[in-house]
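In this section we walk through a basic example: taking a raw amino acid sequence and producing a predicted 3D structure, encoded as discrete structure tokens. The instruction is simple. Fold the sequence below.
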Amino acid sequence: MATRLGKGVLAAMAAGLAALASPAGAQPKTEITLARFFGSCEADYGTNTDLSRARGECGVITTLVNKFNAENKEGITVKPQVIEWGPYYQQLTSRIAARDIPAIAVMHTAQIGDFIRARIVEPVDADLKAAGIEPSEFTPNARNGVTVDGKVYALPWDTHSWLWHINVGLFKQAGLVDEAGEPRIPKTVDEMLAQAAQMREKTGKPYAVMATTGSGDTANGARSFYSWLYDQGGSIFPGGFDKADLRTPEALASFSVFEKLAQANAITKGLDQSGAIGTFMNGGAAVWFTGTWRIDDMLAAAAKPGSPLAEGYTVRVFPSLFTKESVWTDNHSWVLLRGGSAKPEVRKAAQTFLKFMWDNNLAWSRAGHLPARAAVLDEYAKLPLRQYVVGIPQIGRSLPHEARRQFGFQAMIGEEIVSVINAGKTAQAAADAAQERSEPLLRGR
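The resulting token sequence is shown next.
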């Protein structure tokens, strides 16, 4: 009896000491994991919480997480799991298979359909409601990207698209600017090739630079291909989503643009992403084929004294060279993975973090992407060069969620384009190979 009483007294004393050691009203600690790409920049932003100092995708996303961890009152810590963009989905799938499942993951909306069919991504309608986020606040483009069969499967984060990043100084040297000093954007393939010849003659520089050899670089060719395909009203699934057709007149014309650029020595060969960035930043090419996400980085580069971009840097929506104005688009979004936030406290913490991110959607869009939140579009339009890209959601096109293996098609088409640019493959041979590869790709899931 005395022993039992002694143990009870000791337990009560321990509880009292624990209470004295903890601040009144302290929140229990909850950790949530966040799988993402967007690069790693701890050396520059590892402790930064000032969003006004953050530049580029990596700087902004790193700062946002730092800020949330430092300022939230619920005792929540977000632990990023940074994965390289190229193998991101393969690694994410492997982690899920190994039951190492992050609570939240970034996901392109082009991937959502496959992950829903695999029962990996869950609807978040109830989570958004609990967080105080209304889907009516989404831009139409973003809402379409995250909605399947009337259910919302992710918090949209942006709309991103494909641009020409332009060295205006080189365009001036080549005599390819109008009376206002703005670059003249070609309207046909022949006009682009004529400009490329003039650029080479006047400056000795190639017209276009595009990364083609690094992990994930195949997406660059595919996004260009899709943009020119959509300009013609084309599709890789003209007869339904069970069978692709990569040999339509529109698809062949799109492959042919790359063949003509390569034959004219108008596009760089054999560069990875860092090589393409360095080439453009150092004045080695007039036009860089890449996305909205590079706007802020290039503005920062152009602002440096003595920069080869100091004579002028601008962007334009990836131009139509055919019959209609269209461009490839996709969306980044935040998904909750099945099993990753099963514990109620983790789910609640994830909802809190999503609300914080939604409230800071404009800060993210400063990197270049168009915001997913309609209420901040006017502010976004006031940012440098954004007047040239704000119309993208009206002309942007994406494959619908019914199209399976979208990233598989992106990689496959891009690999064929890489062969056209770097190895001299013909457009017809690339189209034939893509067609042959499409059938087992669709059977793969």
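Looking at the output, two observations stand out. The CA atoms of residues 238 and 245 lie 7 Å apart. The chain has 19 helices and 14 strands. In the next section we compare this with other chains.
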